Amino acid sequence: MNSYRTGRNQFAYFLMMIGLALAAAVFVLLRDDAPLNIWLAVAIAIVSVFIPQTLMMANQWERAVVLRLGRLQGIKGPGLFVIIPIVDTIATWVDQRIQTTQFNAEQALSKDTVPVNVDAVVFWQVHDPERAALEITDYREAIGRVAQTSLREMVGSSPLATLLADRKEGDELLRAEIGRKTADWGVSVMSVEMRDISVPPELQDAMSRQAQAERELLARVMLGDAEKQIAAKFVEAADIYAKSPAALELRAMNIIYETTKERGATILMPTSMVNAMNPVGMLGLAAAMRQTTVE
Questions:
Q1: Residues 106 and 41 sit within 8 Å (Cβ to Cβ)
Q2: Where are the chain's structural domains?
Q3: What is the pTM of this model?
Q4: Rounded to the nearest 5°, which phi and psi values hold at 84?
Q5: 152-208 pLDDT, tens per residue?
Q6: What is the Cα–Cα distance from 91 to 211, expressed in whole angstroms?
Q7: What homologous superfamily does CATH list for 99-199?
């Protein structure tokens, strides 16, 4: 696995520059005293040059996988650590922060043979740097492949309605499935989120018409229930009016009054309707009600 790290250990390079300066000072100032001083300056220069290849530094979130002559020597970091040049090599730098990988399933068929495009993202973290470096060639690429395969499997085993309605449940199923496959690599899956589920435009139109028809059906059913309740109230009111004709006449007068409240309104009533309403009797009933109220 190739290392993703490109930064340099600035502290090691700083020490190398100090060593080279010291070697130069020894060579210039003491070269006439003894030949041994020249060799001392050369030795200091050689040691200084090897400092960046010996003194390594890992950030807080990093771990270095060190191999010694091809065998695992240890996991180093965070902070400063020393390796033996030429003998030791850093196989890879492992980032232990939570990371994300985007993946998708294009033209995947659902259980009811509907082609859908699904975009998702997986949040994962390396919890075992040794296994992540030694058990698989490139765990980053493998996570993307496993996530895409798992997504296609889930889409193929679920109806379209389930994918659209139970997105949270689908996220949890994907997290469990991907986590089960990556656990052997030292990788933990934190969560999976399906960001978008799209279907072909012609299917969207059909689904829209279906939803509209279902809503219209529901509206008609609700209207029928309302009519049924209103009819029941009318039957109840008819029974009350049948037992009390005076109440029916008072209701008729109230209706006439309500219709003439607006200014400029004129109501033409046929004589037969007036006679049927028995105005004399109504006046007598109204007077009796007023007298009862005064007493």
A1: no
A2: 10-94, 99-199, 207-261+273-289
A3: 0.65
A4: -90, 120
A5: 999 988 888 888 888 888 899 999 999 999 999 999 999 999 988 888 777 666 666
A6: 57
A7: Band 7 domain (3.30.479.30)
